[in-house]
Amino acid sequence: EKAGFDHFMLKEIYEQPKAYRDTMLGRVADDGKSVQLSELTMTKDYINSIRKVHIVACGTAYHAGLVGKTVIESIARIPVETDVASEYRYRSPIITPDTLVIVVSQSGETADTLAALREAKRNGARVLAITNVVGSSIAREADDVLVTLAGPEIAVASTKAYTSQLVVFYLLSLYFADTLGTKNTAEVSEILAAMQELPEQVESILEQALVLRDIAESISSHPSLFFIGRGIDYPVALEGSLKLKEISYIHSEAYPAGELKHGTLALIEEGVPVIALVTQEELYEKTLSNIKEVKARGANVLGIGNVGYEEEANKSVDTLFSIPRTLPILTPALSVVPLQLISYYASLALGHDVDKPRNLAKSVTVE
Ligand code: F6R
Asked: Are strands 273-277 and 99-105 parallel, antiparallel or unpaired?
């Protein structure tokens, strides 16, 4: 049932192109100019009435929600807050009838997320669930459900469910943008066309798995490392760090690249690996100057950058891994893939149980 792969995690990483295709299938109009989400029961009037969005989730799904915040705000121009589900209820969130609460959960059974959903409904908000399991508790109790069509995810570490959640956030934002008029047809078509290229682009990253295995093996001998990134690269850094900790037990921290010098730079010593995401053209120069700060302290920097920008980046990093060119807003759907593979190979190199890491359950049904 692992279809020739050594672990479910690796199989699921390789299933991401298919998960992207399946999650988009039937949701993009034939002319490529709009998104159809026929399963949504919300009306255009309701969409026009949304004043803010709260995204609530745990773990990896929370990291998808952090990307979702930037995606919804930039494409649909609705203000978004993203919260960890176990914190949401206890901070008296301001939930009003014009708040759309989006809960994100692969399993649809996470107790903290379910409790947040109930709290949102009690306060009169409408709840939209993004989940991978159609008949789950969260799917049943939400007002609307958008299913990620990632297929069953067996490995405890979430990979294809996370990336499919990103695809759903892109689709939902474009759907809202159509009603709200925040993007014109040409802009929507451009994003959708770029999304259609993602599956093949992921495949081209997967073809370089052995390069990432070598990188992972060299990282695996270090006790601690850092992930840095700016803008939409930062939540991807958080996800890369979580994945590595979960299955390899190597300590790491993710930092917004500009924030290191406000505290943690002292921990960057000779030889400390730093994985720097540098995919945002607008922030390119700033991130490169943060890379120079860590390099000056002896860090060994792996850059995750864009094809076409190698020359400039190569001057700043020790090793560069390039992802195919896509629109800046879509890069998380590609840049997380090398990080997933690095985590996988680091765990493997250290002889850990990749699919069943210690102290972590696939579905956390206690609060
Ligand atoms: C990470 C991981 C956990 C889950 C979290 C939420 O690889 O598996 O962090 O993402 O427990 O689970 P769901 O999405 O099922 O609500």
From this structure: unpaired
Cβ–ligand 1 contact at 106 (below 6 Å): yes
| Reported ipTM | 0.98
Contact 246 CB / ligand 1 (< 6 Å): yes
Contacts of 229 (CB under 8 A, 6+ apart): 236, 237, 254, 256, 257, 276, 277, 278, 279, 287
State the Cα–Cα distance between residues 262 and 118, nearest whole angstrom: 38
- How far apart CA 151 and CA 364 sit, in angstroms, is 19
Contacts of 173 (CB under 8 A, 6+ apart): 71, 72, 74, 75, 76
Spacing of C-alpha 178 from chain mean position: 24
Which of 18, 33, 295, 362 is flagged as catalytic? Answer: 362
CB 188 within 8 A of CB 33: yes
Tell me the pLDDT tens digit for each residue of 21-53. Answer: 999 999 999 999 999 999 999 999 999 999 999
73 CA to centre of own chain:
16
Please tell me the residue having the least CA distance from ligand 1 atom 9.
59
Q: Active site includes 121?
A: no
